[in-house]
Design brief:
The chain has two domains: about 1-235, P-loop containing nucleotide triphosphate hydrolases (Rossmann fold), CATH 3.40.50; about 240-268, no CATH class. Helix 3 (about 95-105) crosses helix 4 (about 110-120), helix 3 packs parallel to helix 5 (about 140-150) and helix 4 crosses helix 5. The chain is of the alpha/beta class and about 270 residues long. The strands form two sheets. The chain has a six-stranded mixed beta sheet, with helices on both faces. Strands 2-1-4-5 form a four-stranded antiparallel beta sheet, with helices on one face. It has eleven helices and ten strands.
């Protein structure tokens, strides 16, 4: 569905932000992109959605080459939610904010209202009056509004840049559950986050970026379970992973650890 081949990008008068990255994203994948600040994660996301154009290499969304395809066309297939929702929100009401892209694509008002109401409900903003001005929302609510605006367009790939910023744990789980439902429908999700706990529970694949390159690409359990690798790259493994290792069991999440221990006790 999405393919990058030897993609590099350098900002004007700056260092290389993405260096010779090759990557494929298929349908129904839930991918987490991790890395320290400045690793190139957000730049890579913007290259995928066409907001930035590769200096070398190419990015293809289906048959569309992002170098020659308008961003508006790419956005029909890839939705991108910025880390800072204030960079995305500009309409006078939450209804108009979510409806904006749908109107641009020529949907009828009945279909637009149906999608807007559903998207707001998905992100727990369904209780808000549709004429609520976005400036009256909290930061976390603005973030969820930005997500709703993209969800309403039903993209093939949803890219979320630090989507849990400003949210309590219950809201974080809600966002991840939304992503999980999209994946079950055959859509794909790429989430940029530092929250290993959420990654371990929901993502099926993890990409690790360092100094503009992808240095690891693998199954979540393999990557987050590689304690030596994580520590060598300056990451803190999950406490449940460390405890599982001490107990000699193959688990990375608290849920897996508890389940494995109970199974072992049942066999005794």
């Amino acid at each position: 569905m999405i393919e990058l081949k030897n993609v590099s990008f350098t900002y004007p008068n700056g260092p290389k932000a993405v260096d010779k990255v090759s990557l494929s994203i298929g349908r129904g994948e839930f991918i987490a992109l991790i890395g320290h600040s400045g690793a190139g994660k957000t730049t890579l996301a913007k290259l995928i959605v066409g907001l930035l154009k590769p200096k070398t290499g190419w990015v293809k969304v289906g048959d569309l080459d992002t170098k020659t395809t308008p961003v508006s066309k790419i956005a029909e297939h890839v939705g991108y939610v910025f880390q800072n929702p204030d960079l995305m929100i500009f309409s006078a009401t939450i209804y108009d904010e979510v409806a904006f892209a749908l109107r641009n694509r020529g949907y009828g008002e009945d279909e637009i209202k149906k999608r807007v109401v559903q998207a707001l409900k998905e992100v727990d903003l369904g209780h808000k009056p549709l004429d609520t001005p976005p400036y009256m929302l909290s930061f976390g609510e603005k973030h969820r509004l930005a997500i709703a605006s993209v969800l309403a367009t039903e993209p093939d790939l949803l890219i979320l840049d630090e989507p849990t910023t400003g949210l309590d744990y219950a809201r974080c789980l809600k966002i991840m559950e939304i992503c999980e439902r999209l994946v079950k429908k055959g859509k794909s999700v790429l989430i940029i986050t530092h929250d290993f706990g959420l990654i371990a529970e929901y993502a099926s694949r993890v990409l690790v970026m360092k100094k503009s390159r992808i240095i690891r690409d693998g199954v979540t359990k393999d990557v987050l379970g590689d304690v030596e690798f994580l520590k060598s790259e300056g990451f803190m493994p999950l406490q449940s992973t460390l405890l599982a290792r001490k107990l000699g069991v193959n688990a990375i999440t608290p849920r897996e650890l508890a389940s494995t221990i109970l199974e072992k006790k049942a066999l005794k």
